[in-house]
Write a structure and sequence with these properties.
- The chain has 436 residues and is α/β, with parallel strands linked by helices.
- It is 36% helix and 15% strand.
- The strands form two sheets. Strands 3-4-2-5-6-1-7 form a seven-stranded parallel sheet, with helices on both faces. A seven-stranded parallel sheet has the order 10-11-9-12-13-8-14.
- Helix 3 crosses helix 4 and helix 15 crosses helix 16.
């Protein structure tokens, strides 16, 4: 099937084909016609499936016709969990809408100047892509008008709920016209996501896209066991010197460890930069630009900051720290193997983290191969491994970044990250995160 067969405006099809795409993905083939019909949608689709185009293309198609209602407010509103994903969606709108006349797209995210966004919103705008917290700030100040809104998209709804945005989302939805079309995209449609969907959609059609085995197979995955922090650092150094590695994203569990590990890697001669939620929007943009232009070979990032990164040159993803949730593992490794390319995902794990590995394997329905590097083989499993958070860690070498607080999502004020108190190894994490 070609994009022209989906019923899209020729100018939209022209832009898609100019971007190098010839055939729609599974989610696009189902979601685009359904959106054009005007029905609400609940779509379950994994990262890398082409879901951004699945909702943006039909929205742009509608924008080829003038609005039937007066006003300056947006006709399309896309809510996303992070600034990086907002930038990706905004770029997609501009790319696929480049042949449309006078298309105006505005990103409304925390970390960027509020007054600049307010000025942009005071002018006629077609598409607004926003993080919930910052958008609420503009709504409360009367800076945005939804009277002519036609389509509301909740992208990565499960992640927004994980980050504590449920109240903000419902407050935003309450300000939109009841006549709107609502499209909800999420990795899962069950539980709290399903309950939200029942409140914000009407007679929604459900589309569930299974992850095809061939899509999984294009990312080669393996695990290396490490005895301690020093061993893990030596493994990372070896992996980053692979001649087949073009660019890599290295994931850590805390912002401080991301900073410290980036400094350590630069000291070892790598072109490395950190990316996390405490950075200003200007610094984040500069870091991502360096990655896209190839100046940065290694990006050391946290989960929240890396959401939405789409750089085709990323050949490797390395989990220096395992993710706390199996779902985050899927999002992490989805940074490689983009646009049909092959990718490599490598996790560095302590011996006592085997349960987390089993959780990941169950979630992905895949077995992950254990790799061994000659000369860097792990020792026999210690009774109480040092340097990985046991009670004797005070006597062990302190890892880069120490044992900082895990990065979590952002609260509503200006889109900044919330900072829970964290928890010591061996204790239970808090059941929820207090909103700031």
């Amino acid at each position: 099937m070609a994009f022209a067969q989906l019923g899209l405006n020729p100018f939209v099809v022209k832009a898609v084909e100019a971007s190098g795409y010839t055939q729609p993905t599974a989610v696009q083939a189902q979601a685009v016609p359904a959106t054009l019909e005007g029905t609400d949608l609940l779509v379950s689709s994994q990262t890398g499936s082409g879901k951004t185009a699945a909702f943006m293309l039909p929205c742009l198609h509608r924008l080829t016709e003038p609005s039937k209602l007066p006003g300056r407010g947006p006709r399309v509103l896309v809510l996303v969990p992070t600034r990086e994903l907002a930038q990706q969606v905004t770029k997609a709108a501009d790319t696929y809408g480049k042949f449309l006349k006078r298309l105006r797209t505005v990103a409304v995210v925390g970390g960027a100047p509020f007054h600049v966004q307010a000025k942009l919103l005071s002018q006629p705008v077609d598409v607004v892509v926003a993080t919930p917290g910052r958008l609420i700030d503009h709504i409360e100040r009367g800076r945005i008008d939804f009277s002519r809104l036609e389509t509301l998209i909740l992208d990565e709804a499960d992640r927004m709920l994980d980050m504590g945005f449920i109240d903000d989302i419902e407050a935003i939805v309450a300000r939109t016209p009841a006549t709107r079309q609502t499209l909800l995209f999420s990795a899962t449609l069950e539980g709290v996501v399903g309950r939200l969907a029942s409140r914000v959609t009407k007679n929604a059609r459900r589309i569930e896209i299974e992850t095809a085995p061939e899509l999984k197979a294009k990312i080669a995955q393996r695990i290396h066991f490490a005895d301690d922090f020093l061993h893990k650092s030596r493994l990372l150094d070896h992996l980053l010197r692979d001649v087949d590695l073009s660019q890599a994203v290295v994931f850590t569990s805390t912002k401080k460890s991301a900073d410290d590990l980036a400094v350590q890697l630069r000291g070892e001669g790598f072109a490395a930069e950190a990316l996390h939620g405490d950075m200003s929007q200007r610094d984040r943009n500069r870091t991502l630009q360096g990655l896209r232009q190839g100046r940065t070979r290694v990006l050391v990032a946290t989960d929240v900051a890396a959401r939405g990164i789409d750089v085709p040159g990323i050949s490797h993803v390395i989990n220096f720290d395992l993710p706390r949730q199996a779902e985050d593992y899927v999002h992490r490794i989805g940074r490689t193997g983009r646009a049909g390319r092959e990718g490599i995902a490598i996790s560095l794990a302590a011996h006592f983290e085997k349960r987390q590995i089993r959780d990941i394997e169950r979630y992905t329905a895949q077995s992950i191969r254990v790799g061994v590097i000659p000369g860097l083989e792990p020792k026999a499993r210690p009774a109480r491994p040092e340097g990985f958070g046991d009670k004797r860690r005070a006597n062990a070498p302190r890892p880069a970044g120490g044992y900082g607080k895990p990065e979590t999502g952002r609260g509503r004020r200006a889109g900044h990250e919330k900072k829970p108190g964290g928890f010591r190894a061996g204790s239970r994490p808090a059941a929820g995160t207090r909103r700031s």
